[in-house]
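Retro notes, item 3 of 5
We never archived the inputs for the pyridoxal-5'-phosphate complex last cycle. Fixing that now. Sequence and ligand:
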Amino acid sequence: MSLANQKKHFDIPENITYLNTASQAPAFKAIYEAGIEGLKQKSRPYTIKGSDYFEPVVELKKLFAELIDVSNYNRIACIPSASYGIATVTNNIVLKEGDEILVIDEQFPSNYYSWKNLAEKYDATIKTISKKEGELWNTNILNAITNKTAVVAMGHIHWSNGSLFDLKTISSKTKQHKALFIIDGSQTIGALPFSVKEIQPDALICAGYKWLFGPYGCAYAYFGEHFDHGNPIEENWSNRLDSENFAGLTNYQEEYKPLANRYSVGESGNFIYVKMQIAALKQIIAWTPNAIQEYCKNISSEAVKELRNLGCQIEEESIRTHHLFGIKLPENINIEALKASLAQQQIFVSFRGNYIRVSCHLLNTTEDFSRLVHCLTSVLAK
Ligand SMILES: Cc1ncc(COP(=O)(O)O)c(C=O)c1O
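Structure as it came back at the time:
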């Protein structure tokens, strides 16, 4: 089913062109209202029941599990950031000297530093897979996976330009070589279809404030069997078995709740955040990542042609996503003048050197892309 624009859900004024959901998603109205409900509850703490600490979190986990195609919601943990999830993962991996950890060139730092620490701890090596002009990134990644590979840690796309990775093929090569496959879905889950059943990662970590429209400070993790008996990086009371029985909390409990529950961050039952997250995930599931991708393609395809005609370079559709992509600017453009013009016209995108990263969603229309093209055209004409 194709979607009409959903601008009515958002609170973005008509004169603003926000093409930067990849940096920070705007809360849509249902999320805002859910947050206000949470604040009201906090203003009257005597209305908070014991079950409010647990039941909404279960509902949230079920929604995230549905979105990523996982049948058991106990495989989901609620975490505060992607870096927390990656730190939890690296806390539960033992390597041998000389093992290799594969990462992608210019990977997001939250999915790099913990790997570097792990490599140093075990005298292992970080192998960075890069791509030169004309090369195919997926081929380079597949060729780099050998019996020395202990872990492949990467995203579904490159966070800076939307280059799409063939996770299914990479996953089967990691299995062939008994390597762990850890995915950072922060720039894709919610906007690009993803199925744990199909890809079979060992863990999937995902920031929640971008394509999942959650508040800043909420994130999600899926943990597979490798992590079933692991060690969390902190010990929160609510992750232990029978923690619903408040009167018995100091009868210290050896056992955790099942599977990934041990990895949830302390206070993950945050009344305000959880309400907002539930409202956000319900709406994303109703929209569907497939239809979101299709919508983003429809509103951007004309602009992509026009931008190419202006001398900009954009990857071919088959190897990039539509909700996030990079525009390599023509050599002769005055970048400072472009930045000033975009700011003056209230067009929001991300800059990296002579690349622009554009990211769009149902809050955008073809008009937003026309304004971007128009702005670039006028700066180039000067
Ligand atoms: C690929 C990717 N992973 C993770 C994050 C966020 O990491 P964290 O939640 O640790 O701040 C970002 C933010 O831009 C990102 O682009």
